[in-house]
User: Fold these one by one.
Assistant:
Number 1:
Amino acid sequence: MKNDNEKNSGQSPDNSLELDEEEQGISRRKFLGTAALVGLSGAGLSVGLSSCGKGEDKGAAPAAPAQPSAEVHPGQLDEYYGFWSGGHSGEVRIMGIPSGREIKRVPVFNPDAMSGWGVTNESRAILGTNKDGSLRYTTGDTHHVHGSYKDGTYDGKYFWVNDKIHSRIARMRGDTMETDKITELPNVQGFHGIFPDKRDPVKPEVNYTTRVFCGSEFRLPQPNNGTNMDDTDAYYSLFTCVDAETMEVRWQCKVDGNMDLVATSYDGKLAASNQYNTEKGVVYANMMSAERDSCVFFNIERIEAAVAAGKVSKIPGSDVPIVDGTRAANADPKTAVTCYVPIPKSPHGVNASPDGKYFVCSGKLSPTASVIELERVLHWFEGHTKEPRDAVVAEPEIGLGPLHTAFDNRGSAYTTLFLDSQIVKWNIDAAIKAYAGDKNVKVVEDRIDVHYQPGHLNASMNETKEADGKWLVIGCKFSKDRYLPVGPLHPENEQTIDISGEKMRLVHETSVWPEPHDFIIVKRDKIKTRQVYNMDEFPLAVKDINGSKIERQGNKVTIHLTSVAPAFGLSEFRVKKGDEVTIILTNHDKVEDLGHGFAIPKYNINFIVNPQETKSVTFVADKPGVYWCYCTHFCHALHLEMRSRLMVSP
Ligand code: RUQ
Ligand code: CUA
């Protein structure tokens, strides 16, 4: 039911909440009904549930605001999902936009005490372990989250994120919003830019993402085995292609200099990465002497043809085929796999315009943004133009420290100015005319202060053909005085700007834990989540609700355990000191949001099982005594009573 609040809050009128819930087969009201059926809800729980069920209809309608508001009233849902990287927290976060409310943290590279990521056998298999069973890495640094595409827009199937520290790419499923695969890229360090392709350049019927491209920032000697560390001129970096389904590395392409961010074209033919440090410096002073670096373009079709024809090399110790994309090997445009378009000066960021025509690459140390016309890059590959630089069709001066660019659906671009602490709105067509010599056009349309030092920005749906020009969110790297002081470590500041009118309007800000780099803003009808698992998907599931049991084989003990609020299937399980114990826990509750936790004191174990989910943990029972295993996730009026005893005899 739509009420006045909803109309006034600037939400789109096609509010599809009811439909979405119907499709998912489970609603919040149903949750209430089922919980009531259980018949034991305590006061606190039932109050929480009923207010959750009725909240939408409450609240007096405020006077109609003239302009879109970021306020989302109690009980209402945001119009967009925001997928945020968490930076060196190693995670991904999901926010509601425009409210900025944080809805979920998805552990990716970071062990997580709440969900048991890094504790359960299933998550450890995804994270990767050493021979002694310890986690291979416990640190991570996520920068860029990007979703899979179909027909030039998000299809909600997958999201990928990079780990810059250990050069890993992770995939999150769109239906469960949990990490399902992690791949470590060979032969590279400083894996920073990441972008899925948007269709196949060779097979036009494949109109969806099948590859993910990965840039790497740090040049390395190869093989990187300590024998060749001092010849820094010989260091190089590799552009990596990962298969979107299998998550296996398909190929790598050797480039001169380094890479940074990545963008892909809507026709699938081109991917590009901005390059700073084409000087090949190893200290920063040497990384910024050149007046121009470049944006390197990859001809995907030609690279894949070279791989298929075996025109590749390999680095000792690695099986990945490597195509030579260096300048020297690609002087002839008609056979070249790469095209280096010169861009001033130490550029950071490359972004594709939603009309599919341009990439914008910003100068960082130059006050300019360069507009590269993709058609002209393709012309260069066909031998029709001589200089790669001919592909640059505009280079407006927009302000100091330009980094990343976002777009609306009306031909305007929005660029973060790190040094100026501003967002500048500028017109692409006007910039092209000005570059061609027209002195009468106005390129810069608006400027607005942000707080402070913006890095990434993104507009609603802007990295798709469905850019809608409604909201622009700014990731500010410094918050300084914007929040109550909390000691020396400050949060970062995400600011929301209404871009629906001619002038930008700052409407909202929210603190975020350090430090998100990038994010995408996805219309909520693109996302179809499951609220309950399917028990059949878990090979270990304890499917019989009365099937809890203990199995022993030598000193290996397997506890098959069920949970149904407010009890586990066994009230005690006895093992002997030295036993290797595996606990498999299947949650038989079917009600949305009814998860249980399972913690064992002194054994460093805690994890949750969501409705109909199965997880397992393995540990050695090396401490005799009684250990109360208890439910950590408030599930029921008798949540505190939901326990079992691990009893270890000496
Ligand atoms: S970065 S502030 Cu890691 Cu995308 Cu540009
Ligand atoms: Cu089960 Cu709390």
Note: The chain is about 10% helix and 35% strand.
Number 2:
Amino acid sequence: METKLLTTSEKDINTAGGIIADGGLVAFPTETVYGLGASAFDIGAAKKIYAAKGRPSDNPLIVHIADKLQLSDIAAEIPNEAKIVIDKFMPGPITVILKKKPSVPDTVTAGLQTVAIRFPSNETAQRLIKAAGVPIAAPSANLSGKPSPTTAAHVIADMTGRIDAIIDGGACDVGVESTIVDFTGDKPEILRPGGVTYDDLKAVGLDIIINKNILKSIGANEVPKSPGMKYKHYAPNAEVTVVEGEKDAVQKKIKELLKGVDGKTAGVLAMYGAEYDDAVILTAGESNREYAKNLFSALREFDNLGVEIVFAEFCEKDGYGLAVKNRLYKAAAQRVIHV
Ligand code: AMP
Ligand code: MG
């Protein structure tokens, strides 16, 4: 299949909207990561998403809207606490899980009776959803298991020949996927941390809990609340180890670890711009906000540079820390050294 490269011009957005309306697949920028979109009401189109990504069929998609009026086409009911979140944080980097209307196909929700809904703030994403004339079902636009794409170049690397079109809208602002909050249980629960933080949600009066699986791997016999939790994620080819703690202790430890890499090409994902000998250094940025924005891009870049072992400096500093940690620990297959 030939994959068209599109810009954010009105003509190109209309072309992309037409492709979605006709049952095709378009990758598009959002404020979090690039999404791989299809019409949310077209079963055949949704199936193509799973095939293009190599995504397991039991891992549901997020339905993207560009107008709050579309909520009533998708959600069967909206509890009061969800209304507060929708009111305060949408459009923005947050996804709400609600009971679904029967009109939402099982292929989109992977057979669940609940549906994930998001209203992105990215203008290109909003224009595309409006041009398509339907809500857009979309997971991240990477091959399953790879780091999520935060530039069109990342999507081109993974999806060329597999989808109809890619819209280049530049680099994503947040850099990690949306915060997912489940409103179908006893209390609202964060299933995935992201750009809207736990503190942001507490600040609007929500009695909210954080799912216990956010910072660990799922046991073989556990059934996770979010199907995506049980799959391998964000895995670069390099073996990643997180070294977590205060600056001096982290840097001392990484210098020691670099001595034992045994001729392998080593890299450091650096918060503080340290000088390490014999290592490829990529910058994560000193704040956790910057770290979130740079993380996936850096993981892909280490692979492109042939780096085999990566040590990631990490220190939890602000509300974005949980979102960074969740992705970083997964990328490292839970290899974390606390110093
Ligand atoms: P992605 O944005 O590619 O990471 O994929 C969407 C994420 O949303 C996956 O981790 C899914 O497991 C999660 N998700 C989608 N729908 C639901 C749902 N109804 N309940 C819980 N999690 C969901
Ligand atoms: Mg994903």
Note: The first strand starts at residue 4 and ends at 6.
Number 3:
Amino acid sequence: MKISASFPFAPLTKLCALVAALAGIGWSPTVEADYHVIPLPLEMKLSDEAPFELTPRTSISYPADNAPMQRNAEFLSEYIAQATGYALQTLPADKAPKKGIVLALDPAITQPEGYRMEVNSGGVKLSGSTPQGVFHALQPLRKSIPATATDTHILLPAVTIEDAPRFAYRGMHLDVCRHFFPIEFVKRYIDLLALHQMNTFHWHLTDDQGWRIESKRFPRLNEISSMRQRTVVGKAHSGEYDEPPYGGYYTQEQLRDVVEYAAQRYITVIPEVDLPGHMLAALAAYPELGCTGGPYEVCPDWGIFPDVLCIGNEQTFAFLEGVMDEVMDIFPSHYIHIGGDEAPRTRWHDCPKCQARIRTEHLQSDGKHSAEDRLQTYCMARVERYLNEHGRDIIGWDEILEGDVAPNATIMSWRGMQGGIKAARLGHDVIMTPTSYCYLDYYQSEDRDKEPLAIGGFVPVEKVYSLEPVPTELTSEEARHILGAQCNLWTEYIATTEHVEYMVLPRMAALSEVQWMQPEAKDYDSFLQRLPRLAEFYRRDGDNYAKHVLVEEK
Ligand code: ACM
Ligand code: ZN
């Protein structure tokens, strides 16, 4: 950190008197801001003009009677307080002094998430065409200030920054089923998304090992499905189990609170109810929804299990529609993620009800797909239709391309890029999240003995950084279907919040440059040089980040 005095050229003879006078008026040392943050802004024009000096007396103004812009001002005041220890006054523009930080709306800025930041000795102006754009301007400004600049004045060099994200979908995922994390931590995770200028939180809320959404309609989901009676020890299928019951669920009030918390930070929460596989927790409570009728156990192990929802049973759809009614009521997101991954067909093959459905719906095998594959399509399309009728669209994992794709589905391509390529060519929107770049449950070092137990794989920071979400095989027309990219954190082997942090930080920083920056501007060496300043924020905020690429810290 560069520390200098505000008045470095005072003649020596007068220095003592000056220092005494300055001490009397609360003189502080200054530090200089550095706009080379993560993700790096698109265009930055530094000038030789005098900088702006941010002091405890600097005010932040917002357009009068604009609540979201007022909240932006309050966020900025809070962010600056976290670094400096002093909170800046926020006030409407008509009451603000001329010199200071001004938050403004400017309809001429074309991208809704784009912003402009102008700094000169007279002040700082952060503009966007929407409050969301202005929120994105707050992030580089706060990251340009050293994370711990306690009681210092900040010299903000004169600059004009014009910036906008490359992708409209910039996501992070968190599985709270295999391990369950407190609501306060979920909020902290959302704070991390905001810091990294992401806009979507994909919340994986139901799976074999636990159902985490309170249901008023199906109370056994809370009584039974939210708790597993035992949990496998060590690797999956080790045969050894911990006995204490494990689980929990979020109340609807808590879920709504998270949605609101995220919305204030311009982050959309997309809930995932994974179907028709990964449903053992629900089946344990409602065994009549499975092909065999059970009994079933909230799953104590990790993996893929043959017992899935029975597609031949109308009760299954009454259940799914009832669940979706509650989910839509809690989550206003345009997209609802309905999973579709890893649903074995074995039970359907042997189930009279499922086979009857295959006959009545005339589902047929061809050389590529079995009738049971088409049964999955039938299920996904039926749930999709229900959600479409309520104004929502679905996201599904790339398995939903097997058979016929549900008509309006957005595909999350996880088993590589191929699913995404196929979907884009079929005219479907795509989110890229291929395992080999985006699975943060994979090891981040080859020195596995020094790492906590992980599911396998190897995704170092540099690999995440190297992701190019738009495959060169696509035409420019097809490429428009690539909405963005996301990293996923599955938590079979991640039981604590500290471990979650260790797995996502700083790989999430690498992802943020993939999501935000234009590909030609990305540079891994430059990223590594800028990372220590961001890591100061992680450290200050008590996050347990991995240090593999932060050489001097190892
Ligand atoms: C997945 O990782 N099963 C989508
Ligand atoms: Zn069945």
Note: DSSP finds 18 helices and 24 strands in the chain.
Number 4:
Amino acid sequence: MEPRTITLHDCQFSTYMYEEEIIARIHMLAEQLEQDYAGKNPLFLAVLNGSFMFTADLMKRINMPCEISFIRMSSYQDMQSTGNVREVLGLTENIEGRDVVVIEDIVDTGHTVNALLQQLNEKQPASIEIITLLMKPECLQHQLDVKYVAKSIPNDFVVGYGLDYNGLGRNLRDIYKIVS
Ligand code: HPA
Ligand code: MG
């Protein structure tokens, strides 16, 4: 496929991962989840805003009893982590004794997920795992065991399929990488 280039704000981005590849990876992860959580009733906690598209496509492929809820927790401004991780917002479920699966769009420094896990663990769930669409292993600054990863990528800024650049790009069906 011919690469496509787009401009968002002041930056140029080029196609990096096409929708077909994303969906294929999601189907594999969904099968894995169905095996790992057979006979359980997992609670998926999707971290907004970035995970909305990933969450929708993932949940459409999960054929077992499960619950889904949305929380919010952002640490990102512009293109670099501020390190200012906020509190979990919007968690109304009682997660004590539940098998929780946190759905993320991207894990890079791990600051956000690390803080989230600390706060969730205080509420004594039976288990917690993380599923993420993208992971930047080069950036990771915490001891995190991310069990489900659709794709590991180098440390390049990406947008699309839920991920934004200063608010733009979340609606794109493919993932784009910044043109260096
Ligand atoms: N793109 C968009 N949002 C992000 C990224 C990225 O590469 N890394 C962390 N948040
Ligand atoms: Mg963002």
Note: DSSP finds three helices and eleven strands in the chain.
